[in-house]
Write a structure and sequence with these properties.
The complex is a heterotrimer. Chain A is mainly alpha-helical. Chain A has 14 helices and no strands. Chain B has two domains: 164 residues, P-loop containing nucleotide triphosphate hydrolases (Rossmann fold), CATH 3.40.50; 74 residues, no CATH class. Classes of the chains: A mainly alpha, B alpha/beta, C mainly alpha. Chains in contact: A-B, A-C, B-C.
Chain lengths: 348, 254, 302
């Protein structure tokens, strides 16, 4: 019973926020609401993406740069469910708009998450047995393959884009997605499985010798991460009402990587902060839009050279202010170098 | 007494180099068995073979009659073989306690689902692991250091922590790779006493690799000698001490 | 049969470009164990360096040597310029993180790649530019197999460069030092090898070869744009892995095989999925023989 209290409190809080948003006419069934309301939802979706990618890249140390691929799978599958299956789902539900819309969104999101998880399993199984660099290339390639496939599927609009997606996501659902991804990733990180993932990140050989099934655990983390990217995709589809393959290029994947690198690899709060910063900052500096990617790239290089632990990583400047209650997985510089050398040897 | 670990004609080559050649020996249940040899004799390769990190080219390794050669390292660990590393491989950034808890994952982890929903079973299991890990640390005189980062521990304590971590996997056979490396004679003696005590407390079988003759002679009941990857002798410490081939291998190697 | 030979020729021509770019990946991976993500972008810079040089030169040289002189000058200028860029990238971005974790280095590499692509889009413009036709195209028909003088030139130049590289690495002192660093940097340093210099040189040579690839590809397919290095870069990396990363003959073999695989898929199957074949090959090779065709399986030291 005790565990239900925070869940109910979260639901009630979100419902209240949503009620307020609707009352203030920020939100409606066909409109996307004012500018800052959109930014808020986008930030929420990016938080889900960053937090989920952080589980593989930060906690488990398996470097994926194809997160946009899973985001795309989730978005397109979920949108297909609500566009093509929406009437059927609505048929079996009572004819109350709130129930009907929620039912369709839940079904679509579940399908999107499941499809992304399956894609994650298919990509992860062969590539996670191998060293990190290969994984990076395979995931990058996977993301691009997904995009090429979508371009060739006419039922989801191909290169024209996918239109006519109902507007079902709102502050409540995005907030719920954020809360769920935070809770799940945090609970995994702060468990036996999370500790085992940290062990894999530091020293795979030692982890194996301690009886940890390295491949299975990595694939599990990868699948969970992909599933939440799918959730983010569904929320995005049902908020933007329009999908285009160009939204899901490797640039989107890199953007998510930058979010977690900026915040501090492996830090949950860092992922949130990074996602929010990278959503809001470009909006504040719209005039510099042309330079945005140049600045991202420079920032990424400089952060990695001068502060590889990010804003909220161990010893980070904000890290000392915001006391994190979970174990900081970011290794001390010396230890990190040492373990990196161990992993560094070429493996068979 | 029955045989716990059985090696039969185990060979492993690396390119042109034969690191271990046709090695066979049997370790009885409950034994304190030493493998010695000069540097480069193939001792660590032998450990890597037994613990599944390498697969033998020919020959087989069995634990209590079950073949373990060819199994993945984590499956070997599940069969009940735990090891320490010569070059200490702790996770320096994590606490001493967490290093132990990581090794508890194999036998005592709750399901991922129960961790996500924080079920009662999960809370119970975390509490159990916590108590178990602290007990192990106390046994190895590391209790007071539980919350230190493992990387900050003095060398001797890190070695003991490696042993504690191996024990946390609840093994039947414990492999110790040069446990006394870098220790002074006094520390080595204490370590040997500790190893004997652990064997008796946990009813373990211990196989240890050393190149320090004195340590092995003092601690082990039976010794197997390797030189250039090949077995050259086996016997009690007294027999080995008097064995001409062994003396030559050591003196010859300088 | 004619179709087969035609595809084979086209495949070799495409493959030799991949091979040139793959050499840079494999060399850098050999000395630093780093996937130089920016390598494909150096290839793009090579093409642009050639484009601007040819605009400066055009009209000044006339048609001396059927354009061969001009092509030669462009190739040289571009290779030298990119060698400089390669060294600069190493010095500014990779050297500061050389001792950091692999993850850090990988992120830096991605950052460098993004930076070059986006600066290039600002400087050169995002829309494709058309590489001037320096050497007038001549078509030859040999028993139904059509090939151009440019294809021959691409193949010949690639072969010359690869032979030159092999001789350099096998026969010269510096080449030996390079192999020593690839084998064990710390031991090489103790033997008196200037490791920093060798790493710089590796970047220079690899980048020059990528630049050559960029010029050669532009002779055949004149459309160049700031993102052209992205796919080629990734595919060349796949070629390097296919041949066995770290192995120079492997990179050449992998490049040629990948080029042929792509042209055959495009020729006999669907061209839409041409880009997917590289990743399919990558996944298959990683599953079956992760060390690559010519790579040596190495065992992690425990």
């Amino acid at each position: 019973m005790k565990r239900l209290v925070p869940i109910l409190a979260t639901l009630a809080g979100l419902a209240l926020l949503q009620w307020a948003a609707t009352a203030l006419l920020l939100d409606g069934p066909i409109r996307q609401g004012p500018y800052y309301y959109q930014i808020l939802l986008l930030a929420g979706i990016n938080v889900i993406l960053a937090v989920s990618l952080n589980l593989t890249n930060g906690v488990a140390g398996q470097f994926s740069i194809g997160h946009a691929g899973f985001f795309a799978v989730g978005a397109y599958v979920a949108a297909s469910v609500s566009v093509y299956g929406g009437p059927a789902i609505a048929g079996i539900l009572p004819n109350i708009p709130l129930v009907r819309d929620s039912g369709i969104l839940i079904a679509a999101t579940s399908a999107g998450a499941l499809a992304a998880a399956i894609a994650g399993w298919l990509v992860g199984m062969p590539s996670l047995r191998l060293r990190g660099d290969y994984l990076a290339i395979v995931t990058l390639g996977f993301g691009e393959i997904i995009r090429v496939l979508i371009l060739n599927i006419d039922a989801v609009g191909g290169a024209r884009g996918f239109t006519g997606i109902p507007r079902l996501a709102n502050l409540f659902w995005v907030g719920l997605g954020v809360a769920a991804s935070l809770a799940v990733v945090r609970n995994i990180t702060r468990s036996s499985h999370g500790r085992a993932l940290l062990a894999i990140r530091s020293d795979e050989i030692a982890a194996q010798a301690m009886g940890i099934n390295v491949t299975r655990l990595k694939v599990t983390a990868f699948v969970v991460s992909a599933a939440f990217a799918g959730v983010a995709g569904s929320l995005f589809a049902h908020f933007a009402m329009f999908l285009h393959p160009n939204t899901f290029t490797f640039v989107k994947s890199f953007e998510i990587v930058i979010m977690i690198a900026l915040g501090g690899l492996g830090s949950l709060a860092g992922a949130v902060l990074g996602a929010v910063t990278l959503t809001v900052l470009p909006e504040l500096f719209r005039g510099f839009a042309d330079y945005r990617m140049v600045i991202y790239a420079l920032a990424l290089i400089l952060i990695m050279i001068y502060r590889p632990q990010g804003m909220l990583g161990a010893g980070g400047f904000l890290g000392r202010i915001v006391r994190m209650r979970w174990k900081k997985p970011v290794a001390k510089k010396g230890a990190e170098t040492k373990s990196a050398d161990n992993i560094g040897g070429p493996s068979a | 007494m029955t045989a716990l670990l059985e090696l039969k004609d185990v060979t492993r080559r690396f390119g042109g180099l034969t690191a271990v050649k046709d090695v066979s020996f049997t370790v009885e249940e409950g034994a304190l068995f030493g493998v010695i040899g000069p540097n480069g004799a193939g001792k660590t390769t032998l450990f890597n073979l037994i613990s599944g990190l390498y697969v033998p080219d020919t020959g087989s390794i069995a634990l209590a009659g079950t073949r373990v050669s060819g199994l993945a390292p984590h499956c070997v660990a599940a069969q009940g073989i735990a090891r320490t590393f010569q070059n200490i491989r702790l996770i320096g950034s994590l606490s001493v306690l967490d290093n132990i808890k990581i090794a508890c994952h194999m036998r005592r982890a709750p399901t991922l689902g129960s961790a996500v929903i924080r079920s009662a079973a999960f809370e119970r299991s975390e509490a159990d692991v916590h108590v178990f890990a602290l007990q192990l640390l106390d046994l190895l005189q590391l209790g007071t250091l539980a919350h230190e980062a493992a990387g900050n521990l003095p060398y001797g304590s890190q070695r003991r922590l490696e042993i504690a971590r191996a024990l946390a996997t609840e093994p039947r056979l414990l492999l110790l790779d040069e446990p006394a490396a870098g220790m002074n004679p006094q520390e080595s003696l204490e370590l040997m006493a500790l190893i004997r005590r652990l064997r008796d407390t946990f009813r373990l079988t211990i196989l240890l690799v050393e190149h320090n003759m004195k340590v092995v002679m003092g601690a082990c009941e039976r010794i197997h000698v390797l030189d250039h990857g090949e077995s050259i002798a086996e016997g009690t410490p007294e027999e080995i001490r008097g064995n001409a081939t062994v003396i030559e291998a050591y003196l010859g190697a300088g | 049969m004619t179709v087969f030979l035609q595809q084979l020729l086209n495949g070799l021509s495409l493959g030799s470009i991949y091979a040139l770019v793959a050499l840079g990946y494999t060399m850098v991976y050999g000395v630093l164990r780093l996937i130089n993500f920016a390598h494909g972008d150096v290839y793009m810079l090579g093409a642009f360096a050639g484009y601007y040089t040819s605009r400066l030169l055009h009209g000044h040289l006339g048609a001396a040597g059927g354009g061969l002189v001009e092509a030669g000058i462009i190739l040289m200028v571009s290779m030298v310029a990119c060698a400089g860029v390669g060294m600069l990238i190493e010095r500014l971005a990779y050297r500061p993180v050389r001792r950091a974790s692999r993850l850090t280095i990988l992120i830096v590499a991605i950052g460098v790649s993004l930076l070059i692509e986006n600066v290039a889009q600002m400087v050169f413009g995002a829309e494709p530019k058309f590489f001037p036709q320096i050497i007038p195209e001549k078509r030859f028909d040999w028993a139904g197999v059509v090939f151009t003088n440019q294809q021959i030139l691409v193949l010949a130049t690639a072969v010359v460069l690869m032979i030159g590289l092999t001789l350099f690495i096998r026969r010269t002192r510096t080449g030996k030092a390079m192999r020593a660093v690839a084998h064990n940097p710390d031991a090489a340093r103790l033997m008196g090898v200037n490791v920093n210099f060798i790493i710089s040189l590796t970047f220079a040579i690899g980048s020059a070869l990528a630049a050559a690839g960029g010029i050669l590809v532009s002779l055949n397919q004149p459309g160049i744009d700031p993102l052209m290095g992205l796919m080629t870069g990734i595919k060349a990396f796949v070629a390097a892995v296919l041949g066995g990363i770290g192995s120079i003959p492997g990179a050449v073999l992998g490049g040629l095989l990948l080029g042929m695989a792509e042209t055959f898929v495009a020729g006999y199957g669907s061209s839409t999925y041409r880009d997917a074949i590289a990743f399919l090959i990558l996944i298959v090779i990683l599953l079956l023989k992760p060390a690559g065709l010519l790579g040596k399986g190495q065992v992690e030291k425990v």
